[in-house]
Amino acid sequence: MSRTITRSTPDSPQAVQSGEPVLSHGLKQRHLSMIALGGVIGAGLFVGSGAGIAAAGPAIILLFVGAGALVMLIMRMLGEMSAARPSTGSFSVHAEEELGTWAGTTSGWMYWLMLCAGVAAEATAAGAIMHTWVSFIPAYGWVAIFMAFFCASNLTAVKNFGEFEFWFAAIKVATIVAFLVLGVLGILGVFGSAPGADHLTGHGGFFPTGAAGLAAGLLTAISAFAGLETVTIAAAESDHPSRNVARAVRTAVWRIAVFYIGSMAVVVTLVPWNDPKVATEGPYVTVLDRLGIPAAGTIMQIVVLVALLSAMNANIYGSSRMAYSLVNRGQGPRLLGKVTKGVPMAAVLASCVFGFAAVIAGIIWPTTVFAWLLNIAGCSVLVVWSIVCLTQVKMRRRLEREAPELLSVRMWGFPYLTWVAFAAILGVFGVMAAGSDGRHQLAGTAVVVAALAGAGHLKQRRDRRAAATA
Questions:
Q1: pLDDT at residue 4 above 60?
Q2: Helix, strand, coil % over all residues of the chain, rounded to 5
Q3: For residue 202, what is the DSSP state?
Q4: CA–CA separation, 203 vs 222, rounded Å?
Q5: Nearest-CA neighbor of 459 among 108, 7, 90, 30?
Q6: 223: Cα within 13 Å, side-chain hemisphere
Q7: Under a CB-based contact definition with an 8 Å cutoff, are residues 54 and 278 in contact?
Q8: What are the angstrom distances between the C-alpha of 452 and each of 115, 126, 376, 430, 447?
Q9: What does the alpha-carbon distance between residue 359 and residue 365 come to, in Å, rounded to a whole number?
Q10: Contact call for residues 64 and 221 (beta carbons, < 8 A)
């Protein structure tokens, strides 16, 4: 039996009348636009992309083109669904409505796990940077300071989160734009001799490491884009959810793709892909040093710190809202659904506690528990994206039948491009299965997915029996 689609969300007037807790609507269009732009511009781009370049060589450009194209399709699907039915739980709510409770539970808690693991990794890296500057405070002390600060800021009005992200994202975007401008000038020979195609075709050619290098670089490129989905979660707390999420998705995705692809093209054109500094110090620092920019290392350390803090802030926000949405739908401890002054404080605290526990696990068991957690988190985005594809196909067909006026954003080339995206995700899983490290990641992820899907399926059966006997 199909259910008629409306714009009712857990934060809507209908929810108010039913007595459900209500989140505030303190985010503006400018907040969402910068959240969308800055959500995936993190340390993964500024530093982590160096590992992808070292693995794939100049061909990293093509990998980021492919990953960027996939992300554009996923975000278009999310934009279509969120504009039609904005909700704090975003894709998790849509998956539950279209595919069943098992899909909502799996995608929601997998995303929560990914964001909380991200909080731990980012806090650890930020603490290490601060310890190099202020050494009398240990790295774990800085981690505690950052966790406490961003936990406190997320416990206040949502507009505070929006303001932090707006300025954090503005710094990151300005840095990338400046880097691209300097890079183009360097390619043109303004800072010395023009490199031409020497670094693109020399040092082993455009595909110097072959298929194995491409496989390793592909995973780096895919994971670099994880986190963009947060804008569809945040949209539900904006003043005009449907309109704002549509604008944010339309304008942000192609800009992010340009930032990533442009950055990779500048790096591999200006410096040799096999320069050890690309992987150890980061591609941005290496290029700026090559161009003779003073204090390049310090500048980028500051930017990386900002990127890490921004990601921490966004991940605490996104994980708390996803947890709130899940428990509000009966898929978690009811305590986490408590809302105070428009903020799900219990969910914020739970996400921060889990993130800090993961940090402690990284200190005590860095190669076992923490490594296992990060491996599962790395696969989580692929699980979420695959469920998004299946959800969008079913929801789009129902929207066309029942409420075509809600389709203010439409997926391109439906349903063909949706299935292309789904096939591409399966292809990434296949690439992972071909390597021993990837197989370990998939095995751990499969266990968690099976447990969550099983729990969701049991709840779905209980709900059906309860409805039948009512």
A1: no
A2: 75, 0, 20
A3: S
A4: 25
A5: 108
A6: 24
A7: yes
A8: 17, 31, 13, 22, 9
A9: 10
A10: yes
At 161, list the tokens: 């989160």
Cα–Cα distances (Å) from 180 to 174, 265, 266, 445, in that order, read 10, 10, 7, 37
Residue 275: helix, strand or coil by DSSP?
coil
pLDDT of residue 40: 65
Rg (CA), the chain: 22
In terms of Cα–Cα distance, which of 163, 144, 157, 146 is closest to 312? 146
Question: Whole-angstrom Cα distance, residue 411 to residue 424?
Answer: 17
Q: Return the exposure string of 152-175: e unless at least 16 CB atoms fall within 10 Å of the residue's CB, then b.
A: ebbbeebbbbbbbbbebbebbbeb
Give CA 5 to chain center in angstroms.
27
Query: Which pLDDT score, from 0 to 100, does residue 467 have?
Result: 79
**Residue 342 burial by CB count (10 A; 0-12/13-18/19+): exposed, middle or buried?**
middle
Which pLDDT score is estimated for 39? 60
Please report the pLDDT score of residue 209 as a whole number.
Answer: 87
Other CB atoms within 10 A of residue 107 CB:
34
Q: How confident is the model at residue 94 (pLDDT cuts 50, 70, 90)?
A: very high
pTM: 0.88
Q: What is the DSSP string of 225-265?
A: TTTTTHHHHHGGGBSSHHHHHHHHHHHHHHHHHHHHHHHHH
Q: Residues 398-420: pLDDT tens digits?
A: 999 999 999 988 999 999 999 99
Q: Which residues of 402-428 are buried (b: 16+ CB within 10 A; e: fewer)?
A: eeeebeebebeebeebbeebbebbeeb
Q: Give me the pLDDT at residue 12, please.
A: 40
Query: Residue 19 CB: number of other CB atoms within 10 A?
Result: 7
Which of 25-39, 84-98, 127-141, 286-300 has the lowest average pLDDT? Answer: 25-39
Report whether pLDDT(182) > 70.
yes
Q: Is 140 exposed, middle or buried (0-12, 13-18, 19+ CB in 10 A)?
A: middle
Model confidence pLDDT, tens digit, residues 309-347: 888 888 888 899 999 999 989 888 888 888 888 888 899
Strands (E) across 18-62 are located at none
**Token reading at 247:** 């604008």
Structure tokens at 99: 């595919």
Q: Do 235 and 248 meet the contact criterion of CB atoms below 8 Å apart?
A: yes
pLDDT band at 110 (very low <50, low <70, confident <90, very high): very high
How far from chain centre, in Å, is Cα 10?
Answer: 23
Mean pLDDT lowest among 51-60, 144-153, 155-164: 155-164
In terms of phi and psi (left: phi > 0; alpha: psi -120 to 50; beta: otherwise), the region of 155 is alpha
